Amino acid sequence: MFSGFFSVAINNTPKILRACLNFTDSTVTISWKAPMDNCGSFTKYSLYGKTDASIFQKLDDIPQLSITEYPHKITNLSERWEYFLTIDFLCDGTTTSYSDTISIDLTYPATIELDSTSYDFTTQKIIAGWPINPSSDTRNYEIYDYTSGDGDSIGSTTNTYFTVSDARTGRFPVVISTIDSCSLSSLLSTPHTPAYLNATIDTCLKEITLSWSKYAGWNNIDSQSLYISFDGNSYFKDTTFSGSLTNFVFSNFQLGDTLSFFVRSYTRNGQVTSSSNVTTIETRQFVVPQLLYLSLATVLDDFSGDRAIPKIQWHTDNTKDVKAYSLEEGLTIPNLIEISTIPAQNTTLDYYSMSPNRDGRVAPYYYRVSALDKCNDTLLTSNIGRTIHFDISTENIHNEYVNWEKGVEQYYLEKHDGSTWNTISSQPKPFQIQQFSDSSGCYRISASEDTNSYGFSSKSHSNIICLEKPLSFEITTGLNPDSNNNRFRVIGVGIDHTLSSYVIYNRWGQKIAENNTGTPWYADYQGTPVSPGVYIYIVNVVGLKGEKKSTKGIINVLK
Q1: What sign does the CA torsion over 345, 349, 350, 356 have?
Q2: In whole angstroms, what is the distance from residue 225 CA to residue 412 CA?
Q3: What is the DSSP pairing of strand 138-145 with strand 152-157?
Q4: CATH class of 196-282
Q5: Cα–Cα distance between 374 and 180 in angstroms, integer?
């Protein structure tokens, strides 16, 4: 029976947990763990205390079992107080139980350092981690944003890690302190900030430039490693650097790859690590047009210019990644050289360009167009086109038009009638000299394209050749104002009427008419018919080839 009571008495020995001083109001809070009262014998707690220079004195009786702390106001903060607690009574109803003696807790927790702050690989949240504080009275850890240099609390935990990004967005220096049961705080740790990685791509050089801020907070960084993932596959360690490097150029990829990178930093011989954020570069290959068709190489010739300028046209189906078009020209295909670049327009599919420094009257020229990307690399090259050169001094009076998709449908020999061009002959093959009439007038060769698979056709024109016959003319010498032969005329071929003229005199030598040869004389003088009789003419004729002839004679005006 008594052995049972003694067992209960031992279990009910009071235990003081702590004595914490509030420096603001000079109050010491004594806390203890409430014992079990299986026998219902509890009557009171008694609290005793003393300074270094005194003996223990009862401070108070506490008659409630549920009370587990007591505030004790002290007057001199420099005095060292000690406390113990008794419980009346144990199960025998008479035995008092005594606690251990405890002093005011003025010992601060040890200062510990963060192991690292690091971006979580999966969530990309920043997580801080640290070792367990060796102080036995650790209650929790307080985490701070140290941007201001004072420490702005962002959370507390009893764990040895904390997800910083759940408390505050952004990247900032993180510090921690340890808090004990008396709310005493250790010193703040050294600020730690994880490395932050950026990536930029130069598509033309096919280089990705990686740059990062080094990990901040460790005494030294032993090394750093670059990890890479291609197209969402597993990461692998690609390169290891020294602890001082902050940039790297990566070029082992193809356009079209999606690459993700992070940098891992190491310290304490690799036992502690930190990972930067993940940065992703999504590359793509340039979109290459499926179609680049040189639809026309022609010659712009007229009757007044001093040269016939070649004109080139082409058609495409996509300009998404086309920066410009390179136009090449040459007398032979192996010697094509770039003569101009034409900027691409986002929604334009049909283009043209001139070659103002060339003369289509001299020779035929080859042309080719290439689509260039922003790196000035060739995406696609067109077919080759060649202008038509017309020259009647050779057996084959013109060259073929080359490289239309389905070839030439018809060649046309055309003559100008003063206002429009008219076809005088057509055939599917080039013309030769025996098929050409050398009558005076202006001529050209045209070629029409057989409708291509893109649904259109073009027509190319050659330079123009104009022919004149030698100067030859006749003069009307008998006039009858009342008949159809009622006017004096100079008629013939090869006459340049703008430079040719005539003068009419009566038999007394009076000038009665003066005109160019293109204007007839209707046997009048100042609007009145002249009298019948003999009149004298003098004619000066200039030919289209520059010939000059003069003649004079008699005109008979009849009644």
Answers
A1: positive
A2: 73
A3: antiparallel
A4: mainly beta
A5: 64
Cα R_g (the chain), whole angstroms: 55
Question: What average pLDDT does range 437-452 have in this prediction?
Answer: 89
How many Cβ atoms from other residues are within 10 Å of residue 338's Cβ? Answer: 11
Tell me the residue type at 104.
I
In this prediction, residues 126-150 reach a mean pLDDT of 95
For 499-502, which contacts have Cβ atoms below 8 Å and span 24 or more sequence positions?
499/542, 500/539, 500/540, 500/541, 500/542, 501/539, 501/540, 502/537, 502/538, 502/539, 502/540
- Pair 531, 508: CB distance under 8 Å: no
CATH H-level, domain 292-466: superfamily = Immunoglobulins (2.60.40.10)
Mean pLDDT to the nearest integer, 155-170? 96
Let me know: does 322 contact 372? Beta carbons within 8 Å. Answer: yes
For position 12, what pLDDT does the model report?
A: 61
Nearest to 438 by CA among 397, 487, 387: 397
What is the pLDDT at residue 336? 97
pLDDT band at 407, cuts 50/70/90?
A: very high
Q: Spelled out in words, what is the top-level CATH class assigned to the domain 2-103?
A: mainly beta
The helix or strand, by DSSP H or E, that contains position 480, with its residue range, turns out to be none
Interatomic CA distance for residues 238 and 260, integer angstroms: 12
Question: 8 pLDDT exceeds 60?
Answer: no
DSSP state of 43: -
Is residue 424 within 8 A of residue 415, CB to CB? The reply is yes
- How far apart (Å, rounded) are the C-alpha atoms in residues 482 and 504? 20
**Which CATH number is 116-180's, of 2.60.40, 1.10.287, 3.90.1480, 2.40.50?**
2.60.40
Q: Is 47:58 a contact under the CB 8 Å cutoff?
A: yes
- Asked whether the beta carbons of 339 and 353 are under 8 A apart, the reply is no
d(CA 470, CA 440): 10
Residues of each domain in the chain carrying CATH 2.60.40.10: 2-103, 196-282, 292-466
Q: Please tell me the CATH code under which domain 472-557 is placed.
A: 2.60.40.1220
Tens digit of each residue's pLDDT (9 = 90 or more) over 305-335: 788 999 999 999 999 999 999 999 999 999 9
Enumerate the β-bridge partners of residue 461.
446
> What's the predicted TM-score (pTM) here?
0.68
**pLDDT tens track for 526-535:** 989 999 999 9
Instruction: Give the per-residue pLDDT at 10.
Output: 37
Q: Compute the distance between CA of residue 300 and CA of residue 388 in angstroms, rounded to an integer.
A: 11
Pair 273, 264: CB distance under 8 Å: yes
Calculate the alpha carbon distances from 209 to 198, 203, 246, 261, 369 in Å.
Answer: 8, 11, 11, 11, 34
Q: Which of 489, 490, 488, 497 is nearest to 543 (CA)?
A: 497
